[in-house]
């Protein structure tokens, strides 16, 4: 299934900056842990570790990372998946709040 994702070309900068929230933010905020896990698996299979970390720790306009969204939503599975993918819990949002 994921091998077919490689045929689509996209720019990681577009993924990071094109909108307020990435698909990871939206999945985490809405407790869609299967979708989040699928996206993270596809990221790991298709890009370098540095790119995965950059995407996983991308901040929306409020400075929130997908991990902020998962913690605020109270979804332990999403939190677990994001941390295993390299999400940082020390990144402050625009209110200087971290997920610690």
Automatic annotation (TrEMBL):
GO terms for cellular component: nucleus. SUPFAM superfamilies: Ankyrin repeat (SSF48403). Keywords: ANK repeat, Repeat. SMART domains: ANK. One of its GO terms (biological process) is regulation of gene expression. Pfam families: Ank_2. It comes from the Eukaryota. ANK repeats lie at residues 62-94. This is IKB-1 (inferred by orthology to a C. elegans protein).
């Amino acid at each position: 299934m994921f091998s077919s994702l490689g045929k689509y070309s996209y720019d990681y900068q577009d993924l990071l900056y094109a909108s307020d929230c990435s698909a990871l933010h939206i999945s985490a905020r809405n407790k869609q842990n299967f979708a989040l896990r699928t996206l993270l698996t596809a990221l790991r299979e298709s890009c370098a570790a540095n790119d995965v970390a950059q995407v996983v720790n991308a901040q929306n306009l409020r400075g929130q990372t997908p991990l902020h969204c998962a913690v605020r939503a109270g979804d332990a599975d999403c939190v677990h998946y994001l941390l295993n993918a390299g999400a940082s819990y020390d990144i402050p949002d625009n209110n200087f709040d971290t997920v610690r």
